[in-house]
Amino acid sequence: MSKKVKDFGIEKTLKNLGIKDENKGTSTGGKYFASGTTIESYSPVDGNLIAKVKTSGASDYDKVLEAAQNAFKEFRLIPAPKRGEIVRQLGQKLRQYKNDLGKLVSYEMGKSLQEGLGEVQEMIDICDFAVGVSRQLHGYTMHSERPGHRMYEQYHPLGVVGIITAFNFPVAVWSWNTALAWICGNVTIWKPSEKTPLCAIACQNIMNEVLKENNLPEGISSVLVADHEIGQKLVDDKRVALISFTGSTRVGRMVSANVAQRFGKSILELGGNNAIIITQDADINMSIIGAVFGAVGTAGQRCTSTRRLIIHESVYDEVKNRLVKAYGQLKIGNPLDESNHVGPLIDTDAVNMYQEAIKKGKKEGAKFIVEGEVLKGKGYESGCYVKPCIAEVKNSYEIVQHETFAPILYLIKYKTLEEAIAIQNDVPQGLSSAIMTQNLREAELFLSHAGSDCGIANVNIGTSGAEIGGAFGGEKETGGGRESGSDVWKYYMRRQTNTINYTTNLPLAQGIKFDL
Ligand code: NAD
């Protein structure tokens, strides 16, 4: 470990979370093993090597699948509220490890410390939520059309749930899925992003403590730190009942087709291209805060990041000038330093994509009113820090139709709200959307059938940041999946309709007679 890593107090954090200089990336519970190649996790904060991880090989994969299948036979028999108790204990552990885990998220992924801690808080919240749901996995009871019959629906666990996650929420997405999957009686196998392997090992270590303290079998919670090839194996594996995939639309399209091909179930949480409509009746102060946080928070690397502002012509110049001023005040630097607003992108590949997008935008006619730039010099040695930028564009530009995972904000002018809603919906993705207005008519139209086509539609709140209590996800190329709150637990179970005849006759449904 380099000296610089020690300077941020990261060494202690890693130790507390059980991360060593060299780690094994496969675990089914108590112990770790791995037979694959080694990956190195570098921090985008300072470019230093944090630790190495030996990835999961093909033979590890089979061991994990076998352990999961065996564990399922046992775990499904534990009553749901008792499974909820396991999740409650995970929530308690996460409270204990919140500072360390939040700091690791910030250091390995690059989001601000506050956002890292916020992500762990979401994990705690979903655990609390899931504990309650573990006592409410209820189905309908309906009246049978036949006398002396009872009819009802019940939900059963699915089996092995595969969770494939993106780098930008390296811990929370795991917990959104696992907390619900477990209370429903499933066992889980996690294939985290290879860009944030240490966050995954830390989570598994925390869960391993819970499993050990409760004397539970290996295989209830497993992790496979590996590249896309192991991810692909999971996707294609008939033994995996549900694939919950969070990542790009490009990969999600393939995942969706392959899982459907084998009649598996999938939850798809893919890319967004989120817009805020700022109307002539908007509170401009609130709009500026919402827009700037949405566009530059997590350096524009949230699936819900604000990418487009659709602004009424009467307030366009005011919003534009105030945005330029606000961007001039942004502090870009080490995300562990709370005085900074913007941290680094995940890696230099992401920096290249940011530069490419700017180039492409300019070629199509985008007029940059705040120029982008890759930052160099002291504090920016990792090469991952970029300047958030703003461009005036047409919604039809190819680059505007595309999700660039970087802090590039596009401004578009409109005349009527109907036109603004049409612009907002005229992209392939459908994740998050917002309107800033104090006018009830505008707000209600935006939320109506003729309004936003997204999975999330907000009024006087930006596009980014969702509470775990609601179902989270989006439409169109965002994949149609839902995660976390509301009745999302149903995605992790199979529904069964039961009819019981307590008479001495066998009447057939639909009045059919079949006399022998
Ligand atoms: P990515 O698609 O590159 O990778 C996501 C995961 O898929 C990684 O674990 C990766 O190893 C795995 N993977 C890659 N190829 C695979 C294959 N052939 N088979 C199986 N797994 C494979 O995405 P990323 O760059 O890590 O994350 C950014 C993207 O994720 C953005 O598009 C963002 O919008 C999206 N995202 C969406 C949500 C949501 O809830 N809608 C949340 C977070 C991120």
UniProtKB/TrEMBL annotation:
Enzyme class: oxidoreductase
Keyword NAD: yes
SUBUNIT field: Homotetramer.
Active site feature: 269
Domain (Aldehyde dehydrogenase): residue spans on this chain: 36-497
Gene3D superfamilies from the UniProt entry: Aldehyde Dehydrogenase, Chain A, domain 1, Aldehyde Dehydrogenase, Chain A, domain 2
E.C. number: 1.2.1.3
InterPro entries assigned: Ald_DH/histidinol_DH (IPR016161), Ald_DH_C (IPR016163), Ald_DH_CS_GLU (IPR029510), Ald_DH_N (IPR016162), Aldehyde_DH_dom (IPR015590), ALDH7A1-like (IPR044638)
Record family assignment: Belongs to the aldehyde dehydrogenase family.
Keywords: NAD, Oxidoreductase
GO molecular function, one term: aldehyde dehydrogenase (NAD+) activity
The keyword tRNA-binding is assigned to this record: no
Protein's recorded name: aldehyde dehydrogenase (NAD(+))
Domain of life (superkingdom): Bacteria
